[in-house]
Each structure stands twice: as structure tokens, then as C-alpha cells.
Design goal:
It is built from 18 helices and 38 strands. The chain has 648 residues and is of the alpha+beta class. Residues 20-239 form the Glycogen debranching enzyme bacterial and archaeal type N-terminal domain.
């Protein structure tokens, strides 16, 4: 039995079903993403989007959708669904009677006496999607018609009918091949059984993506339909359709489909679901393994997102230190400039220390890991010396000052009208907390494993002591009882934000225990929700508790009240350390809501952010690497503390 299901009444209600998306991805970085009734509502939706090496590895949508029609006794029933303005045509969703989300999305249609199903499968090791059609019940032979809608454009853009498109059809074994524009790979459409392809080229104009319309973006495009596949099925027959960038062997499609499904592990509980989602977020293209920050529009190999999510997606998801190091080594080789010279997310290179510390805690291999990565961490510290980076500099008090006019120099980097919503110029609390943690860790490791007379230790020991001496006096506000979010030439900014969490959650904290307790108290009272940690207190007049409206409205809310699941990892970790096993029930409460919502937004996936206000609806990327990794970390911590409790 599937772990996630939907019934007929839910599926035929478009207000309900169009807000729920399914997602499958391959290790190559290709993906399939659409709504549970296969009506595309975003520009990013489609049956096959693939990275195109000719265009720098960006993702391009080749096959937008595939409409099915059943013909019996001369009557044709169209199972597809598209939006044109405010009209849906055809309305094939009305025939859907069942939907299983796992292990592969399976939709069952009932048309009179016909019972028909389709199962969508992303092939795990190639840029290929397969769809198996099964005629489960029918009083007689039935004709299946398949109509492909081709896009051949970036997932971030839309396409229009144009004379430049090469609409020529090339026959291949078991099907046909298309390449609308130069530089793209071929799109090979094939069927496992004998069929006829009727070449009838036609542009379908004005297809509307309702979610883009709602968000105020360009929302209409024209898609090219080259013709239709036609084949006959008897009751009990099945046929497999393949869309791939390479030519497949039609005779092997059925067996390959069955073999892949057989190897897919059953999803029995939420931990299995987390591990499954973690696997989707890791891709290995051309022998180069990286992390996708989120589906469907976030990029692959981003610096901060990879550093933040790496332990969760590798160690806590699968006890895979080899994978951890491979992804990290690839990131380091690609991001030398941002790690060691310049970046607008000034805290990201420093956060790598915490990632390495988590790796050491997990494996216990302190000496080996430091031997491999110690030089890198020390070089990162050296890069923050005065005069090394334009965007951030070390002041005589040892603290880091980040400032470039009209540039957001932290993870809170939304912009409106060309201006950062949260510029935060000056001493940032999380950046300086990570700075102190990096200094302390590197100096301690250098003392244990470095040279007796270490030039690094001589250079940075005094700076560490300066940071320790100055951090709390600069950031702590005794009157209000929490740490300033940042400090600039005008003094402390006292917006209550979660960035102060990093002053207490890292291995080396620059504040006293009394300050830690006060910080936890204010975070508990003003920022913690059942869907993550708010980015701003509701008491603040700038607070926006709902992530809706135009792009401007959403950008104003993004870091001004939205709750981020990614912050639960460090928050729950420090709470366990401070409170102990008695925090288990609270940790359970703080995570169970995500599982209750698992049939919303991205079905079976964990979203990037949630409304700060109840009922905390999901928004952003439907599958987020940072959210998934944080929940895996929390799952690991809960199991560890539960085990300690059971032993007692």
C-alpha cells in the first residue's frame, strides 16, 4: 500500500489538487514535476527537464506534458488537462478515481466501464522519463492516443510560436525524435509496443500557468504538438512510453521499467521519506556529485546551501562519509573564489567549520578529518584578515564588519526595487559567532595536531581572545535580554531575529551561560513555530506573517517573518544540549506538523519556508535541501536522545 494517497473527491477538486505537486528526479539532475492531476501550474512544471551541458548545465524543459485519450466504440475521452486563461480544456481530471504518490506516482482513471492507469517513473541514472499505461478493465479493445507537448526552453522562461523552431520529425526505432533548436539534445519519444505516429504539427497557444498568474509573473506560453501516437490495447495490456535524450531500445522498456520499480525501496515511515527526498536532492552528473538546493527552480552546487545541508543529506540520511567528502571536495574545487576571496554571503565560508565539526562528531575521526580539511579551514580564516576581502574586514577589536552599500551580505538576501530588504551592514551576530567558532576550532586542532611553533597560532590566538572579550559587550543588550541582530555606526539593531541562535548553538560560544538561557527564552517566546523558526518577531512592525501576493510582497515577507525549517536543526541541537532528554517531547511537537502536511504543496517533500502566522502554510521550493537536511538532523538527534533515555 502506498504511504501517500488521494481519493476521487480530492482529485476532482481543482482548487485542492492544483496546489499539490509531485516530483521525481534522477541522479543526472533531470526531473519531472507537475500537479497531482498532471496539469502544469508553473513554468517549472513538465514531464522531462534536463541539464544541458551545451548551455552551462542549466535546466531546460523538453517535454512539457503528454495528453492521453481513450477511444472505444467511436467515442473519444480526453484525459489531459490544460488551463487557457480561466478555462480548463480538456478536463480529464474528472475521470481520476485514485492517486498513489509512492513509490512512483500512479493515477487511476475510470471512464464508463474502462479502468485505466498511468505510472510515472524518472529513470534514476539517465535523462529519461518513462510512463507505463495499463488497461486494467475494458469491455473490448480500446485505442490509446498520446499527444506530446514540446517546449525546448529554459525552466525559468516561457516560449512562443516562432518560425525558428525546427519542427521536423525524425523516425527512430519505436518512435520519433525532435530537436526544436540548435544546441539542444534530441528528444526521443518511443513506445515499447507497436504503434503508429501521425505527424500533424500544430502550436497550442495561450497555455496558462495559474500559479505564475497568481504571483504576478508572465504566465502564458505556446507549446508545439508534433502529432499523436496511436496504439490498440486489450484488457490486461500495458505499454511503456519513454522520453529520453538518447535513443532507447523499445523492446527493453517494459523490463527496465519493472526492474527499476522493483529496486525502489518501500516507503514505510517518515524516516524513509526523508531519506528518499535526500536522495532526490543529490545529483551526480558527468561523474561530479553535487547537491541541488531545491526543486524546481533552485540551482545545483550553491555554496551556502551545500555547506548547510551536507551533513543531513549524507551522514544523517545514509551514514555515508564517502559521499560527504566527495560532495565537499567538489564544492571546494568549484568555489575557491567565494571561499577564499569574495562572496556576498559573508558567513558561508565560516560555516564550513560547523559542517566539519558535525562530521567529526558523527565519525569520531578527528585527526584524519582535520588532516584533510584543516589547511582549507585555516586558509578561510586567513582570508578574513584585514585587506583580504572587499565586502568584509576585521576591525581592531577582532570582530568582522560587513558592508557594501545596497548589498545584502548575509543569507538574508532578498531585494525589493534594487534595495536589500535586510541589508544588516556592520557587525552581524551570526557571522561573528561563526568567526569565533572557526578561530577556536582551528587553534585547538592546531595545538593538537599542528607544528610545535605554529605560525597560524601565533597569528590568530590574539584575535580569538579579542573576539571572546568583545563579542558579548558589543551584541548583548541586558535591558532587552537578547543579542542584537547587528551593530552599526548607529548602535545595536534590536530586531528579534534567529541569527542570534548561532551565538549559542555552535561548539564554541562567545557568550556566557546566562546569555544563552536568555537567548533561548526570547527565541522560544517570539520565533519558534510548529513549522520552523520565524525570521522576525511578530512584535516588530515590519513583520509579515504571510508569504503571499506579488513578487514584491513575497520578497518583503521572505526574511521578515517567514518560518524556516532549516533553522530547526541548530535550534533543537542546542536545546537538547542545554535541557537534555526532557526536550524530546518538544522536539517531537516541532517536527510532527511537517509530516501532517506531507500531502500539501510538494507531496512527500519538505518545503523551503512556511508562513510565520498560523496555520503556517508551505511556500517556496517544494523540496528544499536545507529543510530536508534539518529534519534529518533532528531525526538523528531525537533517536540519539531517545536511545539514551531507553538505556536508563
Amino acid at each position: 500500500m502506498a504511504f501517500l494517497k488521494f481519493n476521487k473527491s480530492e482529485l476532482v477538486n481543482l482548487e485542492y489538487s492544483l496546489k499539490r505537486e509531485i516530483l521525481s528526479a534522477s541522479k543526472t539532475g533531470a526531473y519531472c514535476n507537475t500537479s497531482i492531476v498532471t496539469c502544469n501550474t508553473r513554468r517549472y512544471h513538465g514531464l522531462l527537464a534536463v541539464p544541458v551541458d551545451n548551455f552551462g548545465g542549466g535546466k531546460y524543459l523538453l517535454l512539457s506534458s503528454l495528453d492521453e485519450s481513450l477511444v472505444m466504440n467511436g467515442r473519444q475521452f480526453n484525459l489531459g488537462i490544460h488551463c487557457y486563461g480561466d478555462v480548463y480544456e480538456p478536463r480529464g481530471h474528472k475521470y481520476i478515481v485514485d492517486f498513489d504518490a509512492d513509490p512512483e506516482p500512479k493515477i487511476v482513471y475510470k471512464v464508463g466501464e474502462i479502468l485505466f492507469s498511468k505510472t510515472i517513473l524518472m529513470v534514476p541514472d539517465s535523462d529519461q522519463v518513462m510512463i507505463r499505461y495499463d488497461l486494467l478493465e475494458a469491455p473490448m479493445k480500446t485505442t490509446l492516443i498520446l499527444k506530446p507537448f514540446l517546449a525546448f526552453r529554459s525552466v525559468h522562461s516561457l516560449t512562443r510560436q516562432n518560425p525558428e523552431a525546427d519542427t521536423a520529425c525524425r523516425e527512430i526505432d519505436g518512435g520519433v525524435s525532435f530537436r526544436l533548436y540548435e544546441g539542444f539534445p534530441d528528444l526521443n519519444l518511443q513506445l515499447s509496443s507497436k504503434s503508429a505516429f501521425r505527424y500533424m504539427p500544430y502550436w497550442y497557444n495561450g497555455i496558462t500557468y495559474s500559479d505564475e498568474l497568481r504571483r504576478g509573473f508572465e504566465c502564458k506560453e505556446d507549446l508545439f504538438v508534433p502529432g499523436t501516437f496511436v496504439t490498440d490495447l486489450k484488457p490486461g495490456d500495458s505499454i511503456v512510453f519513454s522520453a529520453s535524450v538518447r535513443t532507447e531500445n523499445p523492446k527493453q522498456l517494459k523490463r527496465r521499467f519493472t526492474d527499476i520499480v522493483r529496486k525502489d525501496g518501500e516507503i514505510r515511515d517518515y524516516h524513509d521519506l526523508l531519506v528518499h527526498d535526500a536522495d532526490l536532492l543529490k545529483c551526480n552528473r558527468n561523474g561530479h556529485e553535487r547537491i541541488n538546493a531545491g526543486f524546481s527552480w533552485l540551482e545545483t552546487g550553491l555554496l551556502r546551501e551545500t555547506i548547510e545541508s551536507l551533513p543531513g543529506l549524507t551522514l544523517y540520511a545514509g551514514d555515508n562519509g564517502t559521499e560527504f567528502e566527495e560532495i565537499l571536495d567538489n564544492l571546494v574545487s568549484e568555489e575557491q573564489d567565494r571561499l577564499l576571496r569574495r562572496t556576498t554571503q559573508v558567513e558561508a565560508p565560516l560555516r564550513l567549520t560547523d559542517t566539519i565539526q558535525q562530521y567529526i562528531h558523527y565519525t569520531g575521526e578527528e585527526k584524519r578529518i582535520w588532516t584533510k580539511y584543516g589547511k582549507l579551514l585555516k586558509n578561510i580564516i586567513d582570508s578574513y584578515a584585514p585587506g583580504k576581502r572587499r565586502e568584509i574586514t576585521m576591525h581592531p577589536n577582532g570582530l568582522l564588519w560587513a558592508q557594501v552599500d545596497r548589498v545584502a551580505l548575509s543569507w538574508m538576501n532578498a531585494y525589493v526595487d534594487g534595495y536589500p530588504v535586510t541589508e544588516r551592514a556592520g557587525y552581524q551576530v551570526e557571522t561573528n559567532a561563526m568567526w569565533y567558532n572557526a578561530l577556536c576550532f582551528a587553534l585547538d586542532m592546531e595545538k593538537k595536531y599542528g607544528a610545535r611553533k605554529s605560525a597560524f597560532a601565533a597569528r590568530w590566538s590574539h584575535v580569538r581572545d579579542l573576539v571572546q572579550a568583545n563579542f558579548q559587550p558589543v551584541f548583548w543588550n541586558a535591558e532587552h535580554g537578547y543579542l542584537a541582530d547587528y551593530v552599526n555606526n548607529f548602535g545595536q539593531n534590536l530586531d528579534v531575529r534567529p541569527n542570534q541562535l548561532f551565538a549559542i548553538c555552535l561548539d564554541y560560544s562567545p557568550v556566557e551561560d546566562e546569555v544563552k538561557s536568555a537567548v533561548i527564552s526570547v527565541i522560544n517566546n517570539e520565533l519558534v513555530t510548529s513549522r520552523g523558526i520565524r525570521t522576525l518577531s511578530p512584535r516588530n512592525p515590519m513583520y509579515r506573517g504571510v508569504y503571499e501576493g506579488s513578487q514584491r510582497d513575497r520578497d518583503l515577507a521572505y526574511h521578515q517573518g517567514c518560518a524556516f525549517p532549516s533553522l530547526l536543526g541548530p535550534y533543537i541541537d542546542v536545546c537538547f544540549k542545554m535541557i537534555g532528554k526532557t526536550f524530546y517531547k518538544k522536539a517531537e511537537y516541532l517536527t510532527e506538523g511537517f509530516y501532517a502536511d506531507i500531502n500539501k504543496h510538494g507531496v512527500g517533500a519538505f518545503s523551503e519556508l512556511y508562513d510565520g502566522d498560523p496555520p503556517h502554510e508551505a511556500h517556496g521550493a517544494i523540496s528544499s535541501a536545507c529543510s530536508t537536511a534539518a529534519l534529518l538532523r533532528v531525526d538523528y538527534l531525537m533517536n540519539k536522545y531517545k536511545y539514551r533515555e531507553d538505556k536508563k
